[in-house]
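User: Okay, second chain of the day. Same drill as before: sequence in, structure tokens out.
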Amino acid sequence: MTIKENLFEPLLNKKVYESGQIKSFPADTVILNINSYIQSIPIVLSGSIRVIRTDEEGREILLYYIKPGESCIMSFLGGIHNDTSKIKAIVEEDVELLLIPVNKASEWIKEFPEWTDFIFNLYQKRFEELLEVVNAVAFQKLDVRLLHLLNQKSSLYHTKEIAITHHQLADELGVSRETISRILKQMENEKLISLSRNKISLM
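Assistant: Same drill. Structure tokens below.
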């Protein structure tokens, strides 16, 4: 999915594209790592990014996806406070980004109410998504979480055939590959999915 260049009203839109830099990154590129300093705020123009949290032992859990027309509120908050990143951002599917300098993103809060609304709306959306993650980890069974993740990816890619390994799914859900394989086989027996090599098809 790709968005057009009219992200905002004309004046702010002009500032955004004049100040920002457009860059493209292939899938699986790490564009922001934990403990890195944040130099720019990314706005996704096409493609998508997954944002994850990693613990000291290297285990990961998916927090949310950044889609076209959206940005990363974690990057924004860390950038304006000159703090290091608390998350890891990885390109989910080939992405085109508009990279906004941190100082400009901070200045525009005072200058453009529309930019402030954009940031607050993002904050609310990400907060709700993080609550869903907490709720899922605390209260939902793993098979429900796995099916939800597969549906998320299906929506991102606009297809019911998802090219992904059991290991990748395990990483995003923070569990073992063996556990994911067992649940996927169970879901296949229940006719919810169809399994093939490095591919899962939703029924």
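The two ends are 23 Å apart (CA to CA).

User: Thanks, on to the next one.
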